[in-house]
Amino acid sequence: MNQYELSVSRVINAPAAAIYAVFADYAYGHTAVLPKPYFTGMTVTKGGYGAGTEIIVNMNVMGTKVTYNMVVTEPEPGRVLQEEDKAAGVLTTFTVDPVNNGQAANVTLHTRARTAPGLRGWLEKLITPPISRKIYNEELDLLEKHLATVPAA
Length: 153
What we know:
Blueprint: E1 3-12, H1 16-24, H2 29-32, E2 39-46, E3 54-61, E4 64-76, E5 80-85, E6 90-99, E7 104-114, H3 118-149
Antiparallel strand pairs: 1-7, 2-3, 3-4, 4-5, 5-6, 6-7
């Protein structure tokens, strides 16, 4: 199968539960940390918090507009959250592991995505991971700023 994978990790100085809560909150928290102009919209179509939530995510990266119909699951509630668009072949995982006696957390964003066959797929594998890493690092920057503005749980 033609696919690529990429990950970005960072230690964030906030409790794991607070970080996870931001990612799981599709009505407000998660939307607040999506970097513009790449994410042009996110609409909750079912649920709104954690497993069972369904969202439509609109992206515009380098002039290419894409819409994903994602379903949210929690393989390990409180630690691992996943968004998947089975039709597009995209799975993004948010993993939050406590460090420093719970005062901080290692946050990992990981994506596995199907590519087109042939030359187009080869180009996707070459170009998409570095761009996605940049976007994920911006998302982690926004997460840090967002956590600094919300009251501690």
